[in-house]
Design a protein that fits this description.
The chain is of the alpha+beta class. The chain contains seven helices and 13 strands. It folds into two domains: 7-69, Orthogonal Bundle (Arc Repressor Mutant, subunit A); 80-182, Alpha-Beta Barrel (ADP-ribosylation fold). The protein is globular and about 45 Å long.
Length: 201
């Protein structure tokens, strides 16, 4: 019987091939020949089919000859262009938020595109993988009006090249919603830190 840890390891191995092995044979939409993937992983067809069936991030073609990851690629892949909803969400952590502040944008960070969700709970779930969860609220409609191109994967994830901080209008933390603009909240935090330092002198 395959253990939960074995299944997690299989998922990671499949992700490494389908998301990051752009040197292997694939088409512009990220489809890899099944034979190529099986040879790379040293799996049989049943093992591949089981992993794809339990993980909605992967997809087998109808004829069973090709397989792909639906998003998360570190090499260029063509996605379906999409008009985004007014608001989208990006899941991160408190440490990730600091990196975003330093760069001035939400960046792909090893992926080809930034991943966004239309569901704040899903974004919080993504952030929870990396620590204390935060969902950044994105003014996607304004981004789209100003020329940013959005795409949508087959499983509903919205994708964009980057998100400058000017389009981050709020954040939702794991336990409560924060209603102040992002920069105002950060100013408050910095002011609070300065007050603490003065008080300790």
């Amino acid at each position: 019987m395959t253990s939960k840890d074995d299944r997690s390891a299989d998922g990671r191995r499949l992700a490494k091939v389908l998301r990051h092995r752009g040197d292997l044979e694939h088409d512009i939409e990220g489809w890899f020949p099944v034979d190529t993937v099986l040879a790379e992983l040293r799996w049989d067809c049943e093992r591949l089919e089981q992993e794809v069936a339990r993980n909605t991030r992967y997809q087998l073609s109808q004829d069973g000859r090709t397989v792909r990851a639906l998003h998360g690629h570190s090499f260029p892949v063509e996605y379906e262009s999409a008009q985004p909803p007014d608001t989208l969400f990006h899941g991160t952590s408190s440490a990730g938020l600091e990196a975003i502040q330093d760069s001035g944008s939400i960046l792909p960070m090893g992926r080809h595109m930034v991943h966004l969700s239309d569901d704040p709970d899903k974004a919080i779930g993504v952030g929870r993988r990396h620590g204390e969860a935060i969902a950044l609220v994105i003014d996607a409609s304004r981004m789209h009006r100003e020329g940013f191109r959005f795409y949508r994967s087959a499983d509903g994830v919205y994708l964009v090249g980057s998100v400058p901080l000017e389009f981050v209008v709020d954040q939702i933390e794991r336990r409560r919603a924060c209603n102040k603009p992002l920069f105002e909240r950060l100013s408050d935090l910095l002011a609070g830190s300065a007050s603490s330092i003065l008080a300790s002198d």
